[in-house]
Design goal:
With 1064 residues, the chain is α+β, with helices and mostly antiparallel strands. It has 36 helices and 36 strands. It is elongated. It is found in: Membrane.
Length: 1064
């Protein structure tokens, strides 16, 4: 866990890390001390009464139930957002006003309730999506429980009890573990019944190979990988048979610690950079709306009161509640206009489209906001095994003996997978295998228990990865020339191995053990004699070898010079982080000369006792060796280079050993081939021993870093410190041990093939191909999506500024309301939606991965962009309100005749003081036509400014829609002119504009919808007026773009001059 007592901060809430209780260090004590501490004898186990007593003290062997927040709390949390609160308030007020108008005697029409109902629908959909995502976040803890063992074989009171529920285990229980068993608790190994026991614990520790276990105590401060005398809950026995004693159960186990860390990490999840910016925007918007609403009321407060003058003094003051509510409705309309209601839907659509694009590149995004967060990733913390490497052992070098004992031959072997056809052996003899190479192929094939099968398009191994790699090598070596292959299966991927096993059948196996570090098999040799074939650690085989085989099969004594030559080659391969295995054989086995595998044969007794194996495997003839490794993926080197060009730092955090990890990092380009990396390569333990300021200084280094032998707590601490420094962190992982860090990172990336369900559920993104280069491609896609999102956010916000200016001007000038809330909702949600979504299809910049990542605190809208859109917004307001005024006051505009419908013209003064209409003498209004309707005002001429404004409202709304369509073309690029970036570069935008105009025509020309929105059809000349008024928005923005480019160019030149002056 690292240094205890530290705290995570989330907002103002302080979340303390779980404090570990004192745990007895069983790994650092010998067996007798452990038995004494737990008051149990390994041969007898606990008595039933002791089991019950300990269960009362320690509880059951299970992980804590995580109490998910109740659904009502999750729903309420979805409204903890400034924009949502403004919308909610606007909807409630709008609903109350609609209800009040009905109560006041007016007919309650469905149109009055359209606005609040639509807003409520938006809020409900938003809450549903939010609750669904919150529920998904809880699944990681449930997945963790699924990897726990369900049963165990326990020794209690001297009796072996199979299938005891793992939940019933208590500290001190004696448990029997065999091949295939899943470990049910953390245990101390008491006895190795078989000669060796190996456990697959990579998902918990990050190690790339199964680990051999021992009964010997280790250092008290050993890391989890170094606790070789312990087995851990959730891991699996892949070889051997042993007796263990339970030391920790439930939340005290290593997997329990991971459970606690996931809980802490889930509490520390933060909003994405875009969400933070939108929240900040919402807060600013709240202030702006408040100020503008107050201004609207102050400007129009004179309309709330009326009075009479008598003898020069005002009297008979009257308060008009009707006027008060009217301007209150304008304030509500202002709020509706200011809030980009369609923004959440468009963002969701754009992110969903991004998920589809990323899925095509094998990056499966589980959480929508992660698409945007990827775009500002500054650090990628990557696991090594399976992500940077293939997680498939492969032979990289084959060393054989030459024609004389003072020379060795070295062959480079290509290939990174278990596919026998992946790669070749370089400098292979043109005339086929000589006797020495044949012997190596024979031993590698027969002294081997692994298998490889083809599953769809992949080759999957069974057994030890190193042995599977040897079988792939044999297939690449081929079959000796002139050999009969008629009986071989055409479908068997290991045809050469099959031939060798049929050519010299195995009759006995000398299992691998940790003392002699070798494995041997006795075969029926082609010569009619019995032969012993051995593979194992090169140093151990050399100690037991007295001869060596030359190229032509001649056997010569293994003299000191030859031995040193082989050891020199071994050291060279080990320095390159290759795992080396040697091959040897023995043809003289007098005691096994007649042995046929029968248990009745006298020699069979020798094979039952592993202590005899070293004497059997003596006087060997050494034939060669191989160097194996988990090879890096071929495309990773270029991906690392792409990260460097994009300003993204790569940190490798692995549970593997330091030497191997450093060699891989040099090969893939994290480190240079000859670079001094002493300050950039640390073990997890070394990093955790540093003080916090030194830790942060270490993490701030400008290039790649490596952390080897890292434990779960180390990974979590690294991610936390990086986030504290303002970095946006992407963390990869596949094991249970990676889940807490995946949860804590800004982007948790799990492996789809090798990843555990725990890691996948804790992640934000899953790699379908487990490939690091896929992450880099996803980051590029994320950057492109963010740029497109900025385009449509700017577009929608500029449109909303125009609507606010329009409402404000209406109130400030005192003219009748030109745009009603339901129309503004239609524009924000439906009309603006298609163009905004289409902007998400803008093609990415060609140099998108050659720019440094944006900082998470970079402004969404710069001061210059805001000024531009204030200018545009001012024009939108003037155009919409101006069109409204033109219809009332002008018979023609710019040569366009507007008198065809027969409406009555009024003066601007009359329009601005329409509230005093009832006091005007001889005011008359003639009827006019709109669509198929005739509007008359004989009974109430003053209704001309309310019921009669339907045509003027329609013109204002149409101008607003047209301007926003043209404005979407401006949003194609932040600074580039439409002459250089024409609209057809994004054909979807042109389609979207036609769709939006089509939808607008639908509500104009479908009578029911026209009634709902309070509009009427327009004539050709009126449409001409709309287009003439709307088009200048393109010209205005082109001028502003030109000014911006010119100012940027001047600023760049000044910077160049300053830097040149400084250098001189």
């Amino acid at each position: 866990m690292g240094k205890q007592g530290k705290e995570y901060r989330k907002g103002e809430m302080i979340i303390s890390r779980p404090i570990e209780r004192d745990i007895y260090p069983a790994w650092a004590r010998d067996i007798q001390e452990c038995e004494k501490h737990y008051q149990v004898y390994g041969k007898l186990g606990l008595k039933p009464a002791e089991v019950e007593e300990r269960r009362k003290k320690y509880g059951y062997n299970e992980l804590d139930e995580h109490q998910a927040p109740p659904i009502w709390r999750l729903i309420l949390e979805q409204f903890n957002d400034t924009l949502v609160r403004i919308l909610l308030a606007a909807a409630v007020i709008s609903f109350v006003l609609a209800w009040y108008d009905g109560e006041a005697g007016e007919e309650k029409e469905i149109t009055a309730f359209v606005e609040p109902l639509v807003i409520f629908l938006i809020l409900i959909v938003n809450a549903i999506v939010g609750v669904w995502q919150e529920n998904n976040a809880e699944k990681a803890l449930e997945a963790l429980k699924e990897i726990q063992s369900e049963h165990a074989t326990v020794i209690r009171d001297g009796e072996k009890i199979p299938h005891v529920s793992a939940r019933e285990l208590v500290p001190g229980d004696i448990v029997e573990l065999k091949v295939g068993d899943k470990v049910a608790a953390d245990m101390r190994v008491l006895e190795l019944v078989s000669s060796t026991v190996r456990v697959e614990q990579g998902s918990l520790t990050g190690e790339s190979e199964a680990v051999s276990k021992t009964t010997k105590a280790v250092a008290k401060d050993a890391d989890i990988q170094g606790k070789r005398c312990m087995v851990f809950a959730g891991t699996t026995v892949v070889n051997g048979y042993c007796i263990c004693m339970v030391t920790q159960i439930g939340m005290d186990t290593e997997i329990g610690k991971v459970h606690s860390q996931i809980q802490v990490a889930s509490q520390c999840e933060e909003d994405t950079p875009l969400k933070k910016k939108l929240n900040e925007f919402g807060e600013v918007l709240t202030i702006i709306i408040g100020v503008v609403c107050v201004l609207v009321w102050i400007i129009n407060v004179k309309h709330f009161f009326s009075w009479e003058y008598e003898n020069g003094w005002p009297k008979n003051f009257r308060f008009s509640f009707e006027k008060c509510t009217y301007y209150f409705e304008i304030a509500v309309a202002l709020a509706v206009a200011a809030i980009p209601e369609g923004l959440p839907a468009v963002i969701t659509t754009c992110l969903a489209l991004g998920i589809g694009k990323m899925a095509q590149k094998n990056a499966l995004v589980r959480k929508l906001p992660s698409v945007e967060t990827l775009g500002c990733t500054t650090v990628i913390c990557s696991d090594k095994t399976g992500t940077l490497t293939t997680n498939q052992m492969a032979v990289a070098r084959l060393v054989a003996v030459d024609s004389t004992s003072d020379k060795l031959r070295s062959f480079k072997v290509d290939g990174t997978t278990y596919n026998p056809f992946d790669g070749k052996i370089h400098d292979w003899p043109s005339d086929g295998m000589d006797s020495n190479l044949q012997t190596i192929a024979k031993i590698a094939s027969i002294c081997n228990d692994a298998g490889i099968v083809q599953s769809e398009h992949q080759f999957v191994s069974h057994g030890m990865p190193t042995e599977a790699a040897l079988k792939v090598l044999v297939e690449k070596m081929g079959i000796p020339n002139g050999c009969n292959t008629d009986g071989l299966s055409g479908t068997n991927v290991l045809r050469c191995c099959q031939w060798w096993n049929e050519y010299e059948p195995r009759i006995a196996t000398l299992e691998f053990d940790r003392d002699r570090k070798s494995m041997g098999v006795i075969v029926n040799s082609s010569s009619g004699k019995k032969s012993l074939l051995v593979k194992g650690a090169v140093e151990n085989l050399l100690e037991r070898s007295s001869n060596m085989q030359l190229l032509d099969g001649t056997v010569v004594p293994l003299d000191p010079d030859s031995r040193n030559l082989i050891l020199g080659s071994l050291h060279e391969m080990s320095s390159a982080a290759l795992r080396c295995l040697g091959f040897a054989y023995q043809d003289e086995l007098p005691e096994f000369e007649t042995y046929d595998g029968s248990e009745d044969h006298p020699s069979h007794e020798l094979l039952l006792n592993p202590s005899n194996y070293s004497s059997i495997e003596s006087n060997l003839t050494f034939v060669g060796m191989v160097g194996l490794r988990d090879p890096p993926r071929g495309e990773v080197f270029q991906a690392i280079e792409d990260c460097r060009a994009a300003g993204i730092r790569v940190m490798v955090i692995t549970g593997d050993n330091k030497c191997t990890a450093e060699a891989i990092c040099r090969e893939i380009g994290v480190f240079g081939p000859e670079e001094n990396i002493s300050s950039r390569s640390l073990t997890g333990k070394e990093f955790m021993e540093m003080v916090v300021c030194d830790q942060k200084a270490h993490l701030r280094q400008s290039d790649g870093l490596l952390f080897s032998r890292a434990e779960p707590g180390h990974k979590q601490e690294i991610v936390r410190l990086l986030k504290e420094d303002g970095e946006v962190v992407a963390m990869t992982g596949d094991g249970v041990n990676d889940a807490p860090a995946l949860k804590l990172a800004d982007i948790g990336i799990a492996m789809g093939i090798a990843g555990t369900e725990v890691a996948k559920e804790a992640s934000d993104m899953v790699l379908a191909d487990d490939n690091f280069s896929t992450i880099v491609a996803a980051v590029g896609e994320g950057r492109s999506i963010y740029n497109n999102m900025k385009a449509f956010i700017r577009y929608m916000i500029s449109s909303n500024i125009g609507e606010v200016v329009s409402i404000f001007l209406t109130a400030a000038l005192g003219i009748p309301e030109g745009l009603i809330p339901v129309q503004l909702l239609w524009v924000n949600l439906v009309t603006d939606g298609p163009p905004a979504t289409a902007l998400g299809f803008n093609p990415p910049d060609k140099d998108i991965m050659k720019k440094p990542p944006r900082r998470s605190d970079d402004p969404l809208i710069t001061a210059w962009i805001l000024f531009r859109y204030l200018v545009i917004g001012l024009y939108v307001g003037v155009a919409t309100v101006g069109t409204f005024i033109i219809w009332y006051t002008c018979s023609s505009f710019l040569g366009i005749d507007l008198s065809g419908d027969g409406h009555t013209l009024v003066t601007y003064s009359q329009l601005a003081n329409w509230g005093q209409c009832s006091s005007w003498e001889n005011f008359e209004v003639s009827s006019f036509k709109a669509g198929g309707q005739v509007f008359t005002f004989d009974n109430n001429p003053c209704d001309y400014f309310q019921g009669g404004k339907v045509k003027a409202k329609t013109l204002s709304l149409s101008v607003l829609v047209a301007i926003e369509m043209f404005n979407s073309l401006n949003a194609l690029s932040e600074d580039t002119s439409l002459l250089k970036m024409p609209p057809w570069l994004n054909p979807w935008l042109l389609v979207a504009m036609f769709v939006s105009f089509g939808l607008h025509c639908v509500i104009l020309y479908v009578p029911f919808l026209a009634h709902v929105f309070g509009i009427v059809p327009l004539s050709f000349k009126e449409w001409l007026l709309v287009l003439v008024v709307a088009f200048p928005v393109i010209l205005i923005d082109e001028i502003l773009k030109f000014v911006g480019r010119y100012a940027s160019e001047i600023q760049t030149n000044l910077k160049k001059r300053c830097s040149k002056t400084k250098s001189e």
